[in-house]
Structure formats: C-alpha cells, structure tokens
Specification:
It catalyses: L-aspartate + L-glutamine + ATP + H2O = L-asparagine + L-glutamate + AMP + diphosphate + H(+). This protein is of the alpha+beta class and 634 residues long. The chain has 28 helices and 19 strands. Helix 6 packs antiparallel against helix 18, helix 6 crosses helix 20 and helix 9 crosses helix 10.
Length: 634
Amino acid sequence: MCGICGELRIDGSAPNLDAITRMNRALERRGPDHGGSYSDGPLAFGHRRLAIIDLSERANQPLIDNELGLALVFNGTIYNYRELRADLQAMGYHFFSDGDSEVIIKAYAAWGERCVERFAGMFAFAIWEMRAKRLFLARDRLGIKPLYYSEQQGCLRFASNTQALLASGGIDKSIDPVALHHQFTLHAVIPAPRTILNGIRKLSPATTLTIESNGRQQERTYWHLAAQRPEQEMSEDEWVEAVHDSLRQSVERRRLAADVPVGVLLSGGLDSSLLVGLMAESGVENLLTFSVGFEDQPEEKGSEFEYSDLVVERFNTHHHKYEIPNGEVLKRLPEAVSCMAEPMVGQDAVAFYLLSEKVSQEVKVVQSGQGADEVFGGYFWYPRMRDEIVGEPVDRFRRHYFDRDHDEFLESVTAAYRGEDYTAERVAGLLSRPMADSFIDQVLRMDVTTLIVDDPVKRVDNMTMAWGLEARVPFLDHDLVELAMAMPPEMRLKEGGKYPLKRIARGLIPDAVIDRPKGYFPVPALKFVRGEFLDFMRDILDSQACRERELFNRSYVERLLAEPETHHTRILGSKLWHMALLEFWLQTNVDENFREKPLKAELFPHIELGRLSRLRSFERSVVVSSINEFNEVL
C-alpha cells in the first residue's frame, strides 16, 4: 500500500521533476516508510512506500527491471502473488525481491496488458516501457485503489489523490456541472471518469489506459460483472456453503499476504464480527481487534461496544477500544476533510480517521467489513426498490435513493450550474447494461461496481491511508462478488438482508450480534444538526469564500439554515451537511487563500470575534512535510 505519481510528456520536453517532488510530498502520509523517484526521457515517476510485503530495500519503488526494460510504481496488494511468482519462475523469469511488486513487472512482460486479468487483489499501478516509450496505467476490478489523472497541454500527470495533482500545479480548478449534479444527487458519489474539478479525472475500475509517446491513448475495460443465475440450479444450502468457502478463502488471502501482523476493525456489526470469527476459525492466535466509540447523544448511543465486547469475549482477541470525546470530533474534522481526495459526506469519515490514527500505532494492516451490505443486500432501500413496480428502472431507483430530485437540484445551485438531469441519465445507462436478470440484480450490480467505489470504499482508503494504515476488504474479493451476483437476489434480501452471511455466522459468532438491528457507524456529534456543528456549517456557508464562489443559490441555503434538522435525503442524510461539506472541502483543498494564508478577520466580516476564534481552529492546513508532524494551524 503506497502513494504513486508520475508525469508523461508528449510534447518532446523533459518532465517537470519539481512537480514530481511536490506530488511525492503530498503523498507522504500514504507511504511513510520510503520515498523515491525515477525519470527516463519523457517520463518521471514518484513513489511513497508503506512496507508490508518484503520489508527489505529490494522492494523499494520505483522498481526498475533494466533487463526487461520496465519501471513500476504500484499501490495496493496482489494477494495471489506467490502463485503467480511460481508460474513466472517456471516460465524462466528470475526475481531479485520477494514482494508482489516485482510480480507485476514480470507478469506484464509475460502477458502484456492482460496481466491484470490474472491478479487477485486491489491495485493501481503504472508501468513504463523504456524501449517503446509507452506508459501503462491500471486499476483493480472494483476500484478499491484510487488513480487520478490530469491532462494538461503537452503532458499527462497521475497520482493516488487529488491533493498531489493540485500540488503539481496548473490544474483547472473550475467546478464540473455534471459532477456537481452527481455530488448532490448520489450522496457525493461522482462516477468515474469525472471528479468535482474539471481539471482532474479518475481511471474507471476494471480499466487500463495505455499512452504512447505521441499522446495516442487506448482504454480497455478488462472485467464485466454479470448478475445472472447459473445454468445449473443450486439449493439454498449449496449457495450458503459456496459463499462460506469463498469468504473463508478471501479472508485467508488477505491475512497471509503480509510480512507484518494483520488486525481487524471491529465495529460490533455482523460483517466485521464475522471476519473475526473466520480468522479465529482458521487458527489465528493473538488476534488484534480495534473498536472506536463516541459520546452518547440523548437520541442515539455513540458506540456499539456492547456488541464488539461480545465478540472479543467469544474469541479472546487482543482488543483495543478507543473512546473519543464529541468535542474531539469537530476539532479534528478539518484534518479528515483535508485527507479526502474528493468531497465525501459520510459522517463516519472522521470516525475512520480518528480510529486509523490509533490503530496505525499498533499495526500496518487491518481487515474491514466494507462491501458486505452492497454485495449481500443489507440496506433497507433494496426491498423497497424491489417492491416498486411503477415506471422505468431509473424511476424505481430514484424514488428510494436520490438525495434530491432534479427540480430541487436546479433550485439549490446558481444558473451557471443548471443543466440536464445528468444523474438520471447516467444511472439509467448503468442499470441498462447487459447481463442482469432482474431490476434488483441491476441495482445491486450498479451499487457494487459504481456507487460503493466512490462512497464507503474511497472513504475507508482515504481515512486509513492518511495514517499509513492499509485496509483490506474481503467482502470485495472479485471471486466472492461474482458468486454473490449469481445468487438469486431474493436469497440475499431474505430476513432483512445478508441472509447467507447470517447463516454462516450462526453458531460462530454470538447470536446477539447476528440478530441485532442494522447499525451504522454512530457519530452523534455530526448526525444531529445543532450546537457547534450547526455553527460550524453556518460559518462555512456564510463565509466570503462561499458567497464569492457563487455556487449555491443563497435562498436555498437560507431555507436549510432556517430549519437545519428538517431537510433530509431519502436515506436520511442532512442536505445542509452536503452543502457545507462540499464548500469546506473546496476551501480546505482547492482555494489558495485558505490553504496558504492565515485566516483573517476581513475574510469573515459577518462573524464576531469569538466565533472567528473558534472558526480558526477549523481552518487547518494539511500540507504534511512528515508523517509525524503537521504544519502550523492556518
């Protein structure tokens, strides 16, 4: 797990090595163990390493194989690297390191662009062909690892996050109106290749991109997920047994592909508890588990310790439990936002950020339960969509999922950003893709291949890698996903959803965990729009920067502020928070005067001095010169 970046010149000039240095510096948190760079003619690479497999210097990157004429920068883990290594050795390839990175180089030499089809893992990597002067970029099937790029006059730059590309300079920072529509309709999910900024794009999951020295590009999608029943019928018991075997293999793959200890983020829910049970079932001793909780609010408990404690007691894990004061949540929120590659409205982002800070002091790798709800139908809106029979698929979907209908979106933004119903058009296209037997098959497949990529998966990657912590997601093993998508959806949605997982868990983990109501990562301080949290959002949306941006329709903002706890999305998100988060992300990561200058009273003439003092603590720089040291608070 690492941070990667690079630049390819297609105008005949040399790459900008200063830009590579700036990008590498912005990626330092993702890879605190080593930094390196490489250049060859029109190409330059940068890399920050988090050492997990082959801890020696031989596995440092950029990884250069002069014999094959290939150079690599790689972020992720190839879980089947040992098997591939044996195959490649049998073909006559010789290895100088013991990690998975060199396996990618040899695999590319052996199988070319189709090497990705043999990889089981999460990855984003770039390979430079020294002789052909050709750049090859690739991203894993389910988009677990990010890969952003920017095409400027005469060059293409890429990086693991947008902060690195912004640090390189010359990026078009204007807002993409289509992406803005997605941002406010799909709870901040902007499907690839767009991002909220016109000047930054991202490689789609399951996609490779080849760029020749003359600038010619060829993009290829190498994996398509079907949601169809197999020719031979299977009984319920056979399906459950198949899922059990596949999940067990997935967890074991992610445990064994490491030369460091692997822990588990234990929320107290079914998914993470099942991971603990499966690891214990496989004979893991001294299992490390980690939980976080917050202060209660009158309406909601701030932790799920009562459930995670049951799992700890059952398996006698070496447990770490962290309790975070609510005051710490708002205080640290700006740091979390500064580490978001894109604006993300999930209120558990800061929870993952604070938990990862603690966990990274104990281990470098954890397994996490993300993806189980999407793959096995655990959310409450799936049955509602299934039972919806009126209208086209996109209409049946939007009634239970879209944050705002198109008319409300038009009302929420200024005239410059009003356009067509871009999100409905995009969702209709995703749902209509071939190889899906029913409407709910279409929905579950779209969620797994598109929506999850730019919501929980990206959120977990960003927040864990902000502390040099690698999170592995066994429920998104592509073999397991393919199996689940072939299963009748009625079986997955049975008994409130995730029925196969409940069957597997019964007798393995405590019944109280299996039978509990569906829970979400509780962060009460950010869920209830009142007090300091409301003051914070009001300050952001009333700021001079927000007003001068002229993105939001002020009458719409004022209506939300007048009744902050009454405007919710269909899946119970705060519309006010959606707007404040986007504005704050732009101020924190994009606006030069907020990123590089002290907060001054004249920027906020409407805020009295006491409130300005508090706001000062929110407006923080996140330029990090060392993994252990933050710059001064802005």
